[in-house]
Amino acid sequence: MLQEKIKNELSFSYAQRLNQLPGYLFVEIDRKKKEMIKQGVDIINLGIGDPDQPTFAHIVEAMKKALDNSQYHHYPMGTGLEQFRQVSASWYKRRFGIEINSAKEIYTLIGSKEGIGHFPLAFINPGDVVLIPEPAYPVYTSSTVFAGGVPYYLPLLEENNFLPDLSVIPQAIKEKAKLLFLNYPNNPTAAVANKEFFKQVVAFARKNGIIVVHDAAYSEIYFQEKKPLSFLEIEGAKEVGVEFHSLSKTYNMTGWRIGFVVGNEKLIKGLSQVKDNFDSGVFDCIQIAGIKALEESGEAVEKIRQMYKGRRDVLVEGLRNLGWEVRMPQATFYVWARVPGNYSSAEWAKRLLEEAGIICTPGKGFGPSGEGYVRFALTVDEDRLKQSLDRMSKVSF
Ligand SMILES: *Cc1c(COP(=O)(O)O)cnc(C)c1O
Q1: Is the peptide bond before 155 cis (omega within 30 degrees of 0)?
Q2: In a domain, 176, yes or no
Q3: What atom of ligand 1 comes closest to residue 186's alpha carbon?
Q4: Could you identify which of 112, 119, 137, 380 might form a hypothetical disulfide with 246, taking C-beta atoms 3.0 to 4.6 angstroms apart as the criterion?
């Protein structure tokens, strides 16, 4: 039989780049979770960074209308619609006070993850070092590995307000380093960067000839008077880097896949050359919806900030009452909490699941410096959070 022949003759082995990806740490927790769901246990999921609320109605309406226009049914332009880029540039100007040339300094992305994932392919040669904070969003490591780069990790420690200490990077590493990833407001630590830090980053990048890639996916989810900064607000930043923006978290559009990158023209050009060979851009109708999102969502975004803030207060105060040590997050929809007692983060996550039916993410999954913490996502309502606190109070530590 043909099928048998194929089975006998072919043996597949994965490319080395797949074997180089860090292993998945939570196989057991995952298995347990699936089993409990199957048994019908009422699980409170504080594990995933995906808003629970629907996309704002005015954005959905704009999409519906756009669908009837057959002009949008063709291949989109890789760069994105001129209007989408102009509106993104105007949004940038309004929000951060920075002038962006919409023809050269901005590029539409199929979600910021896509852009971050492809960026190193344009600039990293095999053996080049990439500076990556940890704990962190995993895509910085996988995109580095896929480009043949070598990650050098910068621990984000609570005593440094979860900012990397650039002064301790060895000279030999600085010489081989080609790129630095940053992400503020930060996932998973919920830390916010100040101007002083970004100034140090620009000086560091200039001195050592390092490209800065700043992931600003949570720039609009903040609770403090002082809004999070754009990296590009710092003098000289546009000469050394780019900033990735996403419509996903701000407008509850995670499923739509749209974002953009802003900054240095040459860096954006490099990314566009990679992208032009992999994808054909964002469906025009989604860009039309994105325009609506960027232009008319001021009030709606303010409402979700208030919503997350209310949830944050409930969870942080509740955890503190239970004896947890927790910082009050000033941005993002995450709470990064030090686990009580002498448990590892994975052990805690397992106990919370088994004894309270609560899913959270063990900090170690984001990198070794995440050990001792768990991440809670504020993606369930206040009643559900109160219920989860009630259940947690019955887990002894
Ligand atoms: C959610 C997230 C992204 C990805 O956003 P998309 O635009 O939906 O791809 C990027 N970076 C961080 C840190 C995130 O948490």
Answers
A1: no
A2: yes
A3: 13
A4: 112
343 and 249, same domain (yes or no): no
Give the nearest ligand 1 atom to 113 CA. Answer: 9
CB of 143 closer than 6 A to ligand 1? no
Show the domain range for 189.
57-296
pLDDT of residue 33: 87
- The reply to whether 187 and 316 lie within a common domain is no
What is the domain-level CATH number for residue 86?
3.40.640.10
Last residue of a domain, one of 258, 278, 296: 296
What is the Å distance from ligand 1's center to 248 Cα? 7
Name the pLDDT band for 8 (thresholds 50, 70, 90).
Answer: low
Write out pLDDT tens, residues 117-138.
999 999 999 999 999 999 999 9
The 10s digit of each residue's pLDDT in 309-320 is 999 999 999 999
In this prediction the pTM is: 0.95
